[in-house]
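Researcher: Next sequence.
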Amino acid sequence: MMSLQMSPQPRELLVRRVPTSFSFRMQQLAKELGVVIPVSFFEEANNAHYNSTAIIDANGEDLGLSRKSHIPDGPGYQAKFYFNPGDTGFKVFQTKFARIGVAICRDQWFPEAARTMVLQGAEMLFYPTAIGSEPQDAGLDSRDHWKQVMQGHAGANLVPVVVSNLIGREIIVTEQGNSDITFYGNSFIAVAASDDKEEAVIVAKFDLDKLKSTRHGWGGFP
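Model: Next structure:
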C-alpha cells in the first residue's frame, strides 16, 4: 500500500511506503519466530513499478528493500510490461544473524551482482526466484544450468547461496494465445528440494567466522 503526501515545495510529490496487512503480519511473524524474512512484493513508487524484496529483521524491523535490476522480456516472462528496472543497485543488509545480500530472480544470472554484494561485506546471498519451463520450447530445461550458476556464485565468492524457487503451473490467457509455465522448484542451499512437492523447508547451519577466514585465505578479494 502506498500513501501520498504533498511536500512543502510546489508540484512535488512524495511517496511513502506504509505497512500493509501482509507486511505487518510478516513483521509480527519474524519477531515471533526470531527469524529474518525477505518478503517479495509488487511495489508502486510514483509512476514506476518494481519487483522488490523487503528485508524484515528478527526483531520485526523493516531494514529496507532491494529492487530487481534485470527485467526479462522473453516468451512467457514478459516482465518488462509490468516492472521498471530497479534503481537501488545490489544492496547488503545487516541482520541479527548475518550481513546478507538479496537479489531477485533474473539478477542471479549475472556474476557481477553476487560479486558486488560480497564486496560490500555480504556473508550470505539470497535469491528469491520464479523460473521454470520455456513456453516457446518445450524441450528446453534450464534447471541444471541454473543450479550450476548458483553454485558458481557460492564457489567464486565463498559464501552460502540460498535459492528459493516457485513451484506449480501458471496459465495466462491472452488474446494472442495462452502462456503456460511450469515452475520447477528445486529450491536449495546445499541439497535440492523435490520438484513435485508443494512445500519444502531446507535448513543449514554455517560457521560465518570460518567462512570469513576461508575467504581471506583464498586470495580472491583485494
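Model: Confidence is low (pLDDT under 50) at residues 1-16. The first strand starts at residue 2 and ends at 6.
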